[in-house]
Amino acid sequence: MLKGDALKAMLMAAALAPACNAMADNGETANKSNNPLSLAPGLNLQDYYTPKLYDTNVHTNDALLRGALPMAPNDFIGVPQLFRATLPISTRPDPHNGYSTGIGDLNLFDIFLLKTEGVQLGIGPQITAPTAEQDELGTGKWQAGLAAIAIDSSPRGLLGALVQYQSSFAGDHDRAHVESATLQPFLIHNLPGGWYLRSTGTWTFDLKNDTHYIPIGLGAGKAWKAGSNILNAYLEPQWTVERKGDGLPQFTLLAGINVTFGK
Questions:
Q1: Helix (H) or strand (E) holding 23
Q2: How many Cα atoms within 13 Å fall on the side-chain side of residue 177?
């Protein structure tokens, strides 16, 4: 009888093994595409549409074009680096009761990966250039600061955060000084078939004007392999649950697609 039970258990384990392996592969695929510290080149398009701001009747939109390029350790820098560039195409109210759409301020950062095993840790400088085509689309200021990321990756998903701080140091003398900080928690929970749940709302703090808003997101996405590359599409509604100040986002819909290139 024991032999029969043991045989059944072995057969069941053998039957379940392919499904478990597939789930693990799907989780690894989703993690690689969603992890901001993934050492693989990638392109990303995110669109943040805010249909209404508090205390106004206007809307905004930010389409973020983003590229990430990893760099291997070398004789001068003994740790991997991840260089990321983000160029927004923004829509904002203009002074004539209409809207302006165009290029916003370009953000660049260079993350040094100090720890790649277990909880990944990275930190590095960032700079924002005043590339906006119209005054309402940017700050008119050069800004510099730091970016830091901590990510815990497991078959269940990702848990971590990206923190950024920057302050203006040059630019248009007629424009106001800028000092800001953001905190973006990452919560990714993997599901079967490459699907996953996500929450990645960015908490934004205007330190110069003492205002802030904190959104909480709840969305879903799916990652899948296309040859040696990974495609990843997602949708995440985000609700502002705490704020200080006027003219801040009330609700934002995030939609995006990532392309992670194979090696």
A1: helix 2-34
A2: 7
Domain chopping of the chain, boundaries: 2-260
> Has residue 85 got a pLDDT over 70?
yes
Reported as a single tens digit per residue, the pLDDT across 149-190 is: 999 999 999 999 999 999 999 999 999 999 999 999 999 999
Q: What is the pLDDT of residues 119-156, one digit of tens each?
A: 999 999 999 999 999 999 999 999 999 999 999 999 99
Tokens of 129: 């250039």
Domain 2-260's class? Answer: mainly beta
pLDDT for 23 equals: 47
DSSP 8-state symbol, 261: -
User: Tokens at residue 18, please?
Assistant: 């392919």
Strand partners, 205: 181, 212
Nearest to 204 by CA among 60, 82, 99, 56: 60
Residue with tokens 């079967």: 192
φ, ψ for residue 65, nearest 5 deg: -95, 120
Angle, CA of 214, 55 and 106, to the nearest 5°: 55
Q: In angstroms, rounded to a whole number, what is the distance separating the alpha carbons of residues 156 and 133?
A: 43
**Burial (CB count within 10 angstroms: exposed 0-12, middle 13-18, buried 19+), residue 20:** exposed
Own/partner pairs for 66-75, CB < 8 Å, 24+ apart?
67/41, 67/42, 67/43, 68/36, 68/38, 68/41, 68/42, 68/43, 68/44, 69/41, 70/39, 70/40, 70/41
